[in-house]
Batch of 2 targets.
Target 1
Amino acid sequence: MPESTTRAEPREESNVIIARVRQRCMFLVTVLIGATAPAFADLGAPREEWSIEIPRSHRFDASPVAHPPDRPDGLVVGVGGRVWKISGKGEIVFDTSFGPETGRGRMFDAGVADLDGDGSFEILGGHNDGAIAAIDGATGKVIWEFDNGNEIGRWRLPSAVDLDGDGMLEVVATDRTGWASCVDHRGRLRWRTKVERFRGSSPSIGDIDRDGRPEIVYGTASRHVIALDAMGRVLWDSFHPRLHLGRSTPLIADLDGDDDAEIYLIASNIGPDTGLLSLNGADGAVRWTGRTRHKAYKGLGLIRFEDGTEGVLACDKANSVGAFEPDGTLRWRADLSGRGIWTPGAVADLDGDGSHEIVIAVRDTSRDGKSASWYVLDLKGRVEARHELEGGGYGGPLVADIDDDGVIEVVLASRSGRLTCFSFEGGGDGKGAGVFWSSWAGRPYPARRGEARRPYGGPDMTWIESLPPGRFGHNPLRLSLDDIAHRVPKNAERLAVEVDTAAPDGTRQVRVYKFEDGARSVDVTWPVFAAGTHEVTLRLLDFEAPQIVAALQTLETTVPDVLAEVRGPMQVVSDQIARDRKQLGPRSPATIVLAHHALSLEGRFGMLRASITGAGRSPHAARRRLARDVDDFLDFVERTRRLGLLVAEAGRTGGAPFTIWRDANPWDNVDPRNDLPLPRRQDDRPAPEVLWAFGNETESICFNVVNLGASSLTLRFEKGRLERPGVSPQHAIELTTLHRVVRLPSRFDETVGDLLPRLGDGYLLQIAPGEVEQVWINVSTVDVKPGRYTLSWPVRTLDAASVTVPLTFQLDVSIASVPAESRYSANFWSSNRIGQVDTVDDLNRHGQNVWTRLPLPGAQADARGNLVGELDWTAHDAIVGRARVRRLLYGSPPTPKFPDGVEVTTDLKRTARRNYLKALVAHLATMGLSHEHFMFYPEDEPGLVGDIDGYMRNARENKLLDPEVQNFANPWGAVTLEMIEQMAPVTDVWQPGMDTIHVLGEPYVQLMRRGRKPISTYSVVGSVRIMKPLGFYRGQPWVAFFWGIEGGGWWTYHGADLWATRPDREPEFGTVACDGRALVTTRRWEATRDGIEDFNLLSLLRERAEDKDDEDALAVLDAAVSYVGNRSYHGMPREAGEYELDFKLFMEHRVKLRAALERLVAE
C-alpha cells in the first residue's frame, strides 16, 4: 500500500480528478501505439569505458554535466573557482581556474548555456567567495567574470534564461547573504534583489504563472520560498516555519497536466509528514507536503512511471528514494545503503529494452558490507543492481551519449576526484525509451507559456513627499505605517515594504524590509553609486494577500553631487575641532591631539573622495564595497566629533587622559568606538552604575575605556575593594575576575568581541591613541550576603603623571539565591584536560554536571572471565572526585584483555564485561554514586542516516550485562517517532537534537518522557564566532524550560582554534580557547553559565509559585519564558537566523522575575 501524505490546503478535488483522468488517457494512447514497457529484466554488469583522476587540491564534491546539452561531445565538471572539460573518451580538454586562490574547491557545480545565441554553449562556473564566470566551451578561456561582492557559499548552481526576450540569456545566482543577482550575457549587472537576509538556494526559472514572462524561484535557509519577476521584484513569498530550504534547488514542472506550473522543493530538515514541498506556481500556496526519511540537499528530480504519468523522485540523506505522484501520493519508496544521497538520480533506458531505469549515487559506499556506491532501480523502486565505484560515490550521475557513438553512458564522480564512465550492453541513444532525466541538466521548464499579464503595481499612495538629499552609498530612510494608515490592510500579519531603486545606468536594486513583531515603522535604505537621476519605487506588500501589493509610490530624485552629503557632516566636525583648538591655545596638549584627529579626518576623506571620483569605472561590487567605506567614514566622522569633544573637555578641565563608561549591552557586536559618551557638565552628577545579581551566581559587567591622548596608554588596575557601610572591606579579587575583550573579524562582515583573556599578573591594559578597549568583569555572589555594595578599582596611568581614575559600580545582591544543586543537566562533551590545562574547575563553575570522556582503567581477565588484579582508578577519580556530578557518561562497557591462547567466545566476553561492570558499580558506590548516576553510550546520534540498528544491538547488549545499567541516546537526523518507540524499552536517558524536537513536536517529547525518563537536548554548533551569546547560548536553557525539558548542551566545549582569522573559514566548533598552555573563556561560555543559572531560578520560581498557588508569579514566569523560548534559536545553528534577544526587554523580564521571586521568598 502506498504511504499517504499530509496535505495542507490541497487544490480542489475536481481539478485533481480531471488531471488524473487526463493522465490515464495519455497512458492508454501510449499502450495503443505499442510503447508499453517490458517486464523486469536483468541489466547485466556495466562495462567501464574509461576512468580518470581529476587533478585537484580539494575534495571533489562535483556532478558532471553534458556539453553541449543537445548533442554532447563530452562533459564538464566544476567545483568552486575551477572547471574541467572532459572529452567523451575521458581526456581532459581543459582545466580552467578563476577567482582568487583562497576559497577554491568547495561545492559549486558547473552549468551549460548558450549565452549569446550563437549556437556555441558556454560553461557557467562559480567561485564560493563571490564570482560567477562564463567560460568558452571550446577553449576554456574565461570570457567574463562577475564579482558578486558577497560570499556565494556552497550548494550553488547559476541558472541562465532569456528574461527580457532579446534572444540573449541572463544569468541569475544567489548568495549566502540572501541576495539574488542577475547579469546579462556579457557579465554586466542588471539587477539584484534581497528579500531574506540568509542563504538562498540555487534558483530555478520558468513561467510559473502563465503571464508570458519567466519568473525566478528559490528557497532560503530562513524557511521561505520566494518568487521574483523578470525584473527582480517580488511576486510572492511563501513561508514554511518547519522547513530549511536554503540548499534545495526548486523543481518547476506541470506534472498533473492542468497547464499550471507546480514548484517542488526538498528540505534540509524534516518533521512529521514534511521534507518534500509542492506549491502552486502562480501564488506559492501549498498543494501538498510529502515525507522524506531524512533531510535532503539537492536530491530532487522527475520520473516517468510505467503507466506514462510523471512524478517527483526525492532522494535524502537516509539513503531513501521516494517516488511521488503529482497529487502527493507516495507510489513507492526504496531504501538503499550508503552515507546519504545528496544529489538527484537519473532516469534513462540504460540497455535499450524500452524501459527506463533509475540510477542513484550514494555518498561514499554502502554500510551493508557490499561496497556499493551506485544503484540501478526499476520504475517500481526495486533494486536491479548495485555497483562499486573507485573512490566512493557522491555526485549526481550523468546519463547521456557523451561521445556521439550511439550508446548511452553513465558518468559518475567520486569524492576522491575520479570520474568513471560506464555503459550497458544494448544501451543506445535513440534506442528504447532514451533519457528522461539526467541529474543537474534535468528538464528546463518553459520560460514563456501564456499571456495572462499581471499588473506590477497596486493602488497609488503618498508615503513620503520626497526623498531626502542623496549621497554616495546607502541612504537611510524611516517609513511608518501610520503615515499611510488608510492603505494598510486590516489584521495583516506579514507586511513589508519593497524598495526598488533604478540607477542612472539602468541597474536596479530591490530590497524588502519586513515589519517585524508588530512594529509600525521600519528603517530602509536606497542606494546611490553615481550622480544622476534615480527612480525609487516603494511598494507596500501584504504577503498573506492573493495580490500582495497593497499600495505603491514612485519617486524621482536627482543627485548632482554624491559627495555633498558626505562632505557636509565632515566639515561640521572639522569646524568644531578648529574652534576647540583656537580656544585651548597652541601650548595645550589637547590641541596637538585635536590636530591629529583633524588630519585623520581630512586624510580619510581625501582617499574616499579619490575612490568615489573613479567609482564610475569600477565593477558594481567594488562600488558597493566603497559604499560600505562611506558608511564607515560617516561613523568615523561621528566618532571623531565625540572624541574631539571629550579631548577638548579634558584639555579645558585638566581631566584624565582616558574616559571610562559602562557598555549598555555587553553581548552585542556594536563597535565601542561608535558608542563614545558625550562630555558631562561639571555639575552633572549621574546616577551610579548598578549591577544586580541573585545570590550564589555569577554576573558580568563590561566597561569601555578610550584613550584621549596622542600616544599609547598603559593602564594598571590596582587592587579592587568590595565595601558596604558597617561591614569590613573585602578584596575584590575574592569574588571578581577581570578580562579584556578581544574583537576578531568574521567572514560574515561582523567584528565580534568573543574571547575574554584575563588581564594577567600585572592587571595591565594597553590602549592606542583614540582607540577603545573593553574590560569585562565577572562578579561572583557565592559568599556575598544580600544587600547593596560598592565595587571599585583605582585605574592608574603608568607614566610620569600617574593619573588615577576609579572604576566604580554598585552591586545589588538579591535575597533570592540560585539553588545550590542545579536542576539543569548540562552536557558539553567536554575535554577534562587539554594539554597541560585541567578544565574540571572551569566546567564546575559554568554548570556542567554530565561528564564525558572519562578514562576507565584497563583490566585483565582469566580464561573464565574473572577480573585479575586490582583496577587502577586514579585517573578516573581525579576527575570524578572533583566534579559536580549529576551523571557520568561512558562509552561502551570495556572488554578486559584475556591471556594469550584463550578462545574468546561471545559468552566469555560477556562474562568478563559483566564482571567489569560489577567492579565499576562497586567503585562508584564508594564515591556515593549509584546506577542512576552513570550511563553508557550505545551509539552516537542514532537515526542520523535513517537507522537505529547499531544502537539497538549495543543497547540490548548493555542490558544483558546489567539490567539496571542506563543507556543514553541522543537521537538526531532522520529519527522518527517509530524509532523512538523501538528505542524506548532499552533507553533510560534521552538527549535528542533540539532541531528534532522543534520539527517533531510535543508527541516526540512525550514518547521519550514515558516512565518519567530524564530528557535533555543539544545542538551541533558551527561557525561559532557569530553565534549569538544571548539568543543561542544563554537562550538554550530557556528553550529547554519552554519545552518542559530538564537539560541541554551542544557540541562542543573545546574544538577549533578560536583565535583563527582565516578569510575563507570561521572557527567551526568550541566555546573556550585553549592551546594547551592557558584556558581563555568567551562571551558565549559566560552566557552559557548565565543561562543555566536562569534555568535554576525559573525552576525555583515555578516551585514556589505552584506551592503557594500564586497566579501573578506564574503569569510573570510564563511571559518571560514565552518571550525567550520563542525568540531563541531552536534548530541546528549552522545558519544564522533571526534569533537574537532584545537585551533591554530580556532584562525587563528578569527584573519582573526577580520581584516575583523575592516576594515569594520573603513570605
Target 2
Amino acid sequence: MVGHFLAQIDDDRVKAVAKHLQDAVELSRSKAGDSKEFTTVLGTFKDFLANMQVDVPYVIPGGWEGKLTRNALLYIAEKSSDNTYSLTICNRGPGIEYHPSRPDQFKVKVQGSATIQSIPAARFLDMSFWSMTFALWLKSPPSEYHRVETLYDVLLPWLADSVLPTGFALGEAPVFTTATRNNTGFAKNVVEAAKFLMRKQGLPHATIKRVLFDLRWDILKQIHQDLLVVQNPTLPFHGVAPEVVQILAGINLIDSVHGTHNLAQLLTASVVGLYFSSSTCGVCTTFSPKLHALTQHVTHARFPIVVVPLDGSADEFAAHLNSLPPSWYCVPVTEVDARKALVKLFHVAAIPTLVLTDATGAVKTPLGVQVVLGDPTGASFPWLPPYELPIERLSDTEATVLDFAIKQTGLAALKQNDAGRLATDELVAVQTLLQSVENTAKALRELPPHRVADPWTLTEQVPVLPFEHLEHFQTTDVDGYAGNVADATVPVLTSMLDIPHHVSTLAEAATALRHCEQVCQSLMHRAADGSSSSRMALHYEVIHVITTLFVEILPVPHPSEADFWRGEITQAAQVDCLTRMHNLVLTFGLVWQSIDRPSRHMDATRSLASMCALAMYDVLLRNLAVDAPLAMSVLVAKGYVLAHSFCQNSRTLEDTTRAMELVQPSFGVVRGHVLAYFAGRQVKNATPVFEFRMPDEKVEVKKYSATITFLRKLMEVYAYPLIDMNDQNPPSEMEALVDWLTSDATPLAQHHAEFALTRDVVTMVKFLATMETQEDELMRRRTGLRQWQMWSLTFDENTRFRRRANAAVPKLKWEVSGFRGNDQDIADIDVSGFNGRKLFFGEGPVVISPTALPALLHTSAAGITEDDVLHTDTLPLFQGTLSSEESEYLLGYLTVPYTRIPLVLNFFASRDRVMYLFNPSLQALLRAVLFEGSDWVYRDAAAAASDDVITHVPLRKSTLALQEDALEQAMDARVRHQKAGDHLGTMNGLLLNELTHSPDATLGPVLVMLRAITELGNASVHSSDASFLLFMIHLGVDVMRYVSYAAVEGAPEGVRPTLRRLRADLAGQIQGFGLATLEKWRVEAEDANDLR
C-alpha cells in the first residue's frame, strides 16, 4: 500500500523508493510447501544476493510469526563492495529495544533503521542464516523459536559478529525516532524503510516530511472513497449492466439435472441473484439452504439464481453442481473467462457473495447475503422502497480509529503549514476532506436500537451507547461452547511431621518411605498449580525432604549384614518399598532439573542422597522374602551387586566421592558408610549388574555383558522364551535381548515390575550422582562449526522457566537407536526422562575439584608429585594474586592430601595472605581443601584387630610406578601392593580426622584469619570488601559445624574439652564480629531501599 501511494507522487526519487518496496511484495508472497521447495527458493535467493549491484539497495521482507508474538519488518540489503555487504533492519515495533537508543528531553528515542556494516560475503551469503531468517515467518505452524530473541539474540549477532546493539553502526548523522507503543509497528516499519530509502536517494529531511504527509493525505482520500462506497454499495457498479448481459448472453447456463438454459429465461424475473460460492466453503454450505427456502417462497420465476462456481477442480465442481436445487442455473466450470470477468466486475473478494440485479443487469445491491438473512421468507420481495436495503455499518472500533486518524492528520497538516511546507489553500483542502470523512463516518456509525422497557416512563428517550467491542459478543447463551465445568482442586496438605526422624526396624522404614512419598506428591501437586516462584520453592522443599530421608532418617546398610535391612519381609511389602524408592528417586531427579546453578556442596549432597538410595535399594532387593522370594532377589544374593560406577568413563565409587564437598559433618560420616557397604560387596567379588556404559552419547549394551547374562538367567527362572516360536518374522538374538531389557510390553516387565524398577533406579542414580545442568552439559558437548551444517535452535518449553509443572512424574523412556559390531552384538540406546531430558552420564561439580592439580597445571598426568610442581613452567598465579614462589608453596601442599588442611590454612593465615581470599578461585580452593573427603579407607574395631597391618612405609608413587604395579598384579593375582591411600585415607573425611587428632593445628589458623578480617569491619555493604567478608563469615560457620559435631560425638573423649574451648573461641568471633557486621549491613541496605 505504501509503495502504491508513493508511486503516485510526482518525484522520480520517490518513485524509485516505491519501486524498491513493490519489488519486495513479490518476495513476501513466496511459499514453500516442503523442504525441497524451500531449498529451491533459497538457492534462487542466494544467486540474487550474489549478483546484486554495488550500492543499490534491495528490500527483503522479514519478521517472525510466533505462537505468542509476531512482527513484520523489512531488511534493506546493500552490496558495499565485491566482498562486503551491509544489512539495515527497519523496525519500530517489538525488538526495538535491541536498537541503538538516545535519551531525549522527555523520552528515549531509538534508531528505527539500524545498519550492520562490513559483513563478509561468505557470512552474508551463508544460507544457514537466511534459512533460519525466512523460516521465522514462512514456516507454518510456528515452532518454539519463532520469536524476537531468535532474531536479535542469535541470528543478527552472528551476522554482525558482535552482540547488539554494539554490532550496529551509528554513522555520521544517525536518525532517532520514537518507538511505537500501540502494537502497530508492522505498519510503521514499512514507513521507516521508505524514509531510509529516501535518505539514500538524497532527499532532505524537510522533503521527506512533506512526502510522508502527502502519503497520509492520499491514504485519507482513499478512505473517503471507500466510505462513500460503504454508504452506497452500488456506486462501483454503475454501468456494468451491459457487460453482465453480454457475458451471460454468450454462454449456456446449466442446472443440476444437466439441462441447458439461456439468458432469455431471466428477462421476466423481478430480481436476479448472482451467487458466487464453492463446494468447499463451509459458510456457503450453511447459507445455500436459506437462499433455496427464500426462492421457494417467492417462486423461482420471480427470483432466479445464477450460480457462479469458484471451485478449484472439476471434481469439486461436479459435487457442487449435484448439490444445487434443480431450479437454479449455473455457469459451467469450463467457462473460465466468463467466471473471471464476473468476479472482476463485482469485486468479489470473499464467498458467499450474492449480487442482486434486475432483469436488465442493473445492480440493486451486492449485499444479497444480508438481504436473505434479514428477510428469510421474502415478505418484502422484491425489496423496493420503502424497504431499506442493508449497508455496512462502522463498528465502535472502526469509528474510533477513524477519529484518531482525522485528528492526527489535522495536527500533521497544521505542523506542515507552520513549517512552510503546506500552502494555505492546501490546508483548506485537507480541512474540507477531513470534515467530509467525519460526516460520512458519523452517518455510517453503528447505533444500537433504542428499546424502552414497559415499566419505564421517561419523558425523553436517551440512547445507551454500548461498551467498546460489545458487538463481538453473542447475545444468545454461549455456555454450551465452554465445555464441562472443571472441578476446583483443593490441595491436600500433608503434614511433614508424619515422616519419622529415626527408624530402627524394617516396618518403620517402609512407613517412612510411604509418608515421604505422600508428602512429595502433595508438594508436587501444589507446585503444578502455583506460579514460577512458588513452584521453585516447593521443588526445594521436595529436594530437602528426599535428601533428609535417604541421608539422615534411613540408615545406610552395614557391610557386616548386622542391621534391620536384612529382617523378615513379605514379597508384597518388598515390592512396595522398591516401588516407593524408585518413585522418590524419579521425583528427586525431576525437581533437580529446576536448579540452575547449584553450589558444589549442594551438588555433593544430591550425589550422596542418590548413592544412599542405591545402597538401600540394593540391600532391600537382595533380601529374601519370607513368603515367596523374588527370583531376582535370589539371583542378586548369589553373587551380584547393583552397578555403582559413575560418569561417562565409569569411575569407581571411591574416586567419584573423593571430591565431595560436604559442609554437614554427619554427611561425611554417611559417605563413609556408603563406601563401606559397597566395599563389602566388592570383597565378596560380587558382579556389577546394570552397569551401563556410555562411550559416546548413547548407552551401550553388549551381548555378553553381565547385565545380559543376568537377564538370561532371570528369563530361564521364569521360563520365558527369548524369541516366540510362532513369530513369522523373528528378530535377531541381540534384538530380542535388548527388547526384553528395555521394553515395557514384555511379560517380564508386565508381571515382574522389580526388573524395570531396578534397571531405572541404577540408571537414574548414575545420572544424578554426577549430573550437570543442561546448560553446562550442552556447552561441554558442543562441537565446532561445520561447513553446511544446518542450524538447530530451540527454546525448550520444558525448561524450568517455561514448563507448566505437572504433578505426574513420567518414567524413563528407553529407545534403541541401532546395533553395531561385527556380529551386531552391541546395542546403542537413548534414555530420556525428567520431562524429556536425555540422560547423559556427565561430570558435574561433584567430581571436578578446584584442588585438582592436573587442571591447575594444565597437564593430563594423573599422579602429580611435589617434583612435578617444582619443575613445571605453568604455575597458576590466580589472576596475579600469588607470586610464583607462593603458588609453588600452595600447590606443593596440595600434593599431600593427608596433611594439606593444616598446611594450606597456615599458608593463608600467615603474612596477611588472608586478603588473597578476595580471589574467588582461591576461595573455592580453600573450601575444597577443608570440606572434601579425599581418600577413603574403612576403619572399625574389627578392621583394627585384623591382620591387615602396615608392612612398609606407604609411599606416594608416580604414574609410571602405579602402572608397573598394576601390570604385575594383572600377571599374578596373588600380588598385592599397598597404596598410600590404604593407610593415609580416612573413614569420615579429612576435616573430622584433623579435628580429632590435631584440633589446635587446624582451628588456630582459622581463628587467626577471622581476627584479621576485623580490620574491615567498617566496610559498606555496597563495597567490594562485602563479598570477601561474607565468604569468611560463611567459612567460619561451616567450620564450626564440624567442630560442634566432633565435640559432641565425633571425637574421642580426651579431645572433646579442647574442641569445646576452640568452639567457644570460634563462636565468639562469628557471633561477635560476624553478627554485628551482618546487622550493620542490613540497616544500611534498608536505609538505601536496596535489599538485593
